[in-house]
Amino acid sequence: MSEQSRHKPPVVPKGLHGITATNSNTKISASRIRTATAPLQTERLPTANLGLNSERMRFVMVERLMAQGITNDRVLAAMQLVPRHAFVDGALASRAYDDAALPIGHSQTISQPWVVARMVSIASEVPGATRVLEVGTGCGYQAAVMAQVFSQVYSIERIRALYDMAREHLRALKLTRIRLNYGDGMVGLPTAAPFDAIVVAAAGLKIPQALMSQLAVGGVLIAPEGSGTQRLVKIQRTGASNWERQELEEVRFVPLKAGVQT
User: Phi, psi at residue 134, to the nearest 5°?
Assistant: First the structure.
């Protein structure tokens, strides 16, 4: 769950289903955002506007994401569809579509929209990716976005109160493609592995080998790494015992911790 990213990308031209409990340079038109081709059927979510014209605010948010360099049609369509205001406290609803991380309690945050879009876009680069793992569910927003892009989303949260919060949010939206788990994210979900992609929403000093080992060959892991200075790191598994590493933008996330918190 990220705090505000310090990365400033270069400016370029400018449905959902339920939960089982167990984080271009080409201009894209408004119609393209609404009808972007995606492998999943989507539908209007059953959430109130809370006094906001949230559909219009999401459209403005998506336009901003495109100006910041996000070009993946499926990700843009998912960001347009999922109501971010439904995942934050009502007192913060008016800020839900700002490009900012917001507090969700327990010293955690909901990641800023650009970070969510960037990480999910990288995960979706894997050809034919369907089975993905999110480490750090938080309030459930990123999992909801991922469920619009991938057909099987597993998500794990170590803080019990946030697990319960995410479960309520996702049930309210009638999502079905998410398998939510309460447990230690640093060990992943070995019983459900391998995964085509893994998205880690908290920063460790080093990416856990357990998570890297749960990638399918050809799969991608995207995670922040570091303490004071953090960077997004992309890991691709190229063989049974081989991984390639690429460092990306500077970001700021809450720390990745072991164990569970009741």
Answer: -110, 130
Q: The pTM is what?
A: 0.84
Residue 5 lies in a domain: no
CA nearest neighbour of 149 among 83, 77, 221: 77
- Give me the numbers of helices (H) and strands (E) for the chain, helices first please: 7, 10
30 contacts 90 by C-beta, under 8 angstroms:
no
Whether 53 maps to a domain, the answer reads yes
Total domain count, the chain: 1
Which one from 54, 111, 121, 155 is the annotated catalytic residue? Answer: 111
Residue 121 falls in the annotated catalytic set: no
Q: What is the pLDDT of residues 18-67, one digit of tens each?
A: 455 553 222 334 444 443 334 444 444 555 554 556 889 999 999 999 99
Range of the domain at 26: 19-251
